[in-house]
Automatic annotation (TrEMBL):
PANTHER family: RIBOSOMAL RNA LARGE SUBUNIT METHYLTRANSFERASE M, RIBOSOMAL RNA METHYLTRANSFERASE FTSJ DOMAIN-CONTAINING PROTEIN
A Pfam family this chain is assigned to: FtsJ
An annotated Gene Ontology molecular function: methyltransferase activity
Record organism: marine metagenome
Protein name: Ribosomal RNA methyltransferase FtsJ domain-containing protein
Lineage of source species: unclassified sequences, metagenomes, ecological metagenomes
Length: 197
């Protein structure tokens, strides 16, 4: 079975069942990580797609780290079991500094692969992933003073992924605007905003 893995999908928290309905060729489910024997698909309900997963037989923690380093430098762990062993592998890899982004910022450009332990001696790793963020989770420096709620972080993420933001001189409409987190972001970007709830 493991030799047939052609793609893997990390669902967001609470999104495993909807993602399972979207995907073809599901051959395994490991907590939020869904394995498929089909080439990469473009489902809606995914946080990160592992585009070229490889199954690696490992003899030891050091061997796992050595094999990962031979593929590339930067790795992110998705741990769903064997947590201690997985963490020991991660500790033998070069550290990846994933500081929260300040908005607006460009997307991270360094390649970031993902790996997990399928069992004690089998590692699944993908050097290419759809998201530049660890496990597909964008983190931003939080403003605990200005915005009326935390919804602004979702718009930060969407605008960062889109590579654009509202500009001065533009007019935006925020439909369903209460309590105002998105309108706050648009206004901070310099655009005018009409918020409708």
């Amino acid at each position: 079975m493991r030799q047939q893995i052609q793609s893997a999908y990390l669902a967001g928290k609470g999104w495993v069942d909807p993602l399972l309905k979207e995907l073809r060729g599901v051959i395994g489910v490991h907590d939020r990580l869904i394995l498929s024997d089909q080439p990469p698909q473009n489902p809606f309900c995914t946080q990160n797609i592992w585009l070229n997963p490889r199954t690696l037989h490992i003899e030891s923690i050091s061997d796992a780290a050595k094999q990962l380093k031979a593929i590339q430098r930067n790795w992110c762990l998705y741990s769903y079991h064997l947590h201690r062993r997985a963490k020991l592998i991660l500790e033998k890899l070069p550290p990846v500094k994933c500081k929260p982004l300040s908005f607006p910022s460009p997307l991270p450009t360094s390649p970031l692969g993902s790996f997990t332990l399928l069992d004690e001696n089998t590692l699944l790793a993908s050097a290419d992933c759809s998201s530049p963020f660890p496990n597909g989770e964008a983190r931003f420096v939080e403003d605990k003073e200005g915005p009326p709620n935390r919804a602004y972080l979702k718009l930060y993420e969407a605008l960062t992924l889109a590579g654009s933001k509202p500009q001065s001189g533009e007019f935006c409409i925020d439909v369903g605007g209460s309590p105002g987190g998105w309108a706050w972001v648009i206004h901070q970007c310099g655009a005018e905003v009409l918020s409708i709830d």
